[in-house]
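We examine the record.

___
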Amino acid sequence: MAYYNTKKFAFAIVLFFIFSSTKAQTYISFGAGYLFPKGGSRNSEYSYSPNFPYSVGKVSNFSFASGVGMSLGVGYMMNKNFGFELGVTSVFGKTFTYTATSYGFTPPFTTITKYSAPISAFVNPSMVFKANAIRGIIPYCKVGLLFLAYGKQNSTMNFSNNYIYAESEISNRFTVGTFEALGISIPVTKKISMGIECYAQSINPYNKKLTLIKHQTNGVDDLSKMSVSSKEGVYVKNVDASNTTNPDQPAKYLAYTNNYSNIGLMVHMYYTINTK
C-alpha cells in the first residue's frame, strides 16, 4: 500500500512539474541540411552449380533517404524543459548504381541497375527535452516515432549494353520507425532562435507493389506486348514456388526491406508564436 501511494505521489509531482509552469510556448520551425546513408548494402552472388558462378554484384552504404533534407514543424513546450513537436521531413534522394557481372558467357555481360527515390516524406511526432541555458546556449534532444508518408523507388536496368532496357517503380508498405536528434539552440531575438542538430532516423519499409513503366529490347518498345504478370507484381511474405503464375494477374515476389535510414546535420530556425 505504501508503495502504491509513493507511485501516486511521484506521478502527481511529474504532472505538477509539467503543467504548473508559466513558461509554456508554442513555436514553429524550419530546417534544412544534408543527410548521409546509415547502413544499407545489397549484394548478390549466386550460381547454377558450385563451379559455375553466374552473377556477382555489390553496392554498399546506400539509403533511399540520403541527400538534401528539409523540415517543417510545430511544437509546444509545456515548460522550459519539456514539450512535444510534430514535424514533417522531406529528403531529395540520390541515385545509387548497382552493377552485376554475369560469368559463364563469352564475353561476360554486365547488368547496370540504378536505384533512386527522388523525394520521400516522413512524419515524426516527438518529445522534446531541453536543458537549462549555459551561457545563452540551450542543449536539447528530440526522441520520437517516424512514419513514411510518401516514398517510391525508381529503378532503371541496362542489360548487356542496352540489349534490354527497363524502367520500374516500386511502392512501399506503411512502416513505423524511430528518429533522434541532439542539438543546441541560440536565441537571436526574443522570438527567434537558431539551432543546429545531429539528426538520425531508422526506418526500413517493405516493398508493396512493382510496376514496369518502360521495357525495350534492342531499342524496340515492347511493353504493350507483355503480359500483366510481366509488367506488374505484388510483394508478399511467403511465395509458393510450386504455384503457377497466372499471366493475367500480377506476379508475386518475396518482399524485402528498403533502407530509408540516415544520419546528418540539420540547421533550424525556431519562431515562438506565443508565450504564456
Observations:
- The chain has one domain: 2-206+257-275.
- The first strand starts at residue 25 and ends at 37.
